[in-house]
Protein: Chemotaxis protein CheW
Organism: Pseudomonas chlororaphis
Amino acid sequence: MSGPASYHVIHDEAQAIDDCWNRIGIHGDKSCPLLVEHIHCRNCAVYSAAATRLLDRYALQQDDRARVQAPVDSDLVTRSLLMFRLGEEWLGLTTRSLVEVAPLQPIHSLPHQRSRALLGVANVRGALVACLSLAELLDLEPGGITASGARSQPRMLIVAAKGGAVVVPVDEVDGIHAIDERILANASPSAGKYTRGVLPYKGRSLRWLDEEQLLSAVTRSLS
C-alpha cells in the first residue's frame, strides 16, 4: 500500500487476490453495494481478508500461524486486530488504523527532534515518513529477545495518523486475527497507557490498544 486505502501488490501470488476496492470500491467507480453500509473499503470484511492474505504472503513465516476461519455462527461478530510484539509485551491494534506491514528500513535521525518518541524518518518506497517509537509512547521497556526471538523478524508498521502515515518499528508481527466482540467486551481492565483492556491470547496476555488515544498521542508527538 502507498496510502491508507491502496495496496501495492509485491508478490507474484498476489495477482490471485481480487482488489475490488480499486475496481468498484472507494478507489474505483464506487459501484459496490457494500459502500452504503461500510462508507470506506477498509471497514469491509473483504478488504480485511485481502489484507490478511497479503500480510501472510509477505513474510510472516511462523510455523504455528493460526488461520482465521469464516465464522459458522451467523450471530458472531468479530473485529480484526493486528497482533505484534514490542520487547516482552504483545499488543493488538485494530486493522482499520493499519496501512501496511513493511520490512524494517534504516531510520535516519533528525537534528533538533521534536520529542523523545520521534526516532527520525524512514524511506518508504521513495517517500520520507516520520518514524516514532511506540515503546516510548506506551512507556514500555526497550525491545529484547523472547522465547521466539530466534525466529522473530522485526517489522515496521505503517499506520494512518492525522495528517499522514507514520512508521513504528516493532520486534515481531504475529498476523491479523478475527477476535469475537464478546471477548473484547470482557477484556480485563488495564492501567497501561492508551490501552482498552487485556485479552488472553495463545497462552499469553495481550494489550488491546486504544487506537484513538494512541493516534492522538502520535499526532502530538509530531506537532
In short: The radius of gyration is 17 Å. DSSP finds six helices and eleven strands in the chain.
